[in-house]
Amino acid sequence: MNAIQKxxxxxxxxxxxxxxxxxxxxVSCKDRSSNVILDKPxxxxxxxxxxxxxxxxxRPNEKIRDVAEDVEKAAEDVKESVKxxxxx
Length: 88
Description:
coiled coil
């Protein structure tokens, strides 16, 4: 196994560990209706406030939200890659 394959394997293992930890964090929430991590702003004022707080890194659970957003973007990238590969 060459160095690049080892780096990919390490990154994959780290991502799986991160996803496992994140899923445990989300499952351990007792009251799912008040889950602050996944609450999306509804009104235009809430959306603006959320964008400003995101830019200034002062949202509640900011690190977890950032990781969740990164995982969501990565999943979309993988979805597009698989879709492109299937078309070829």
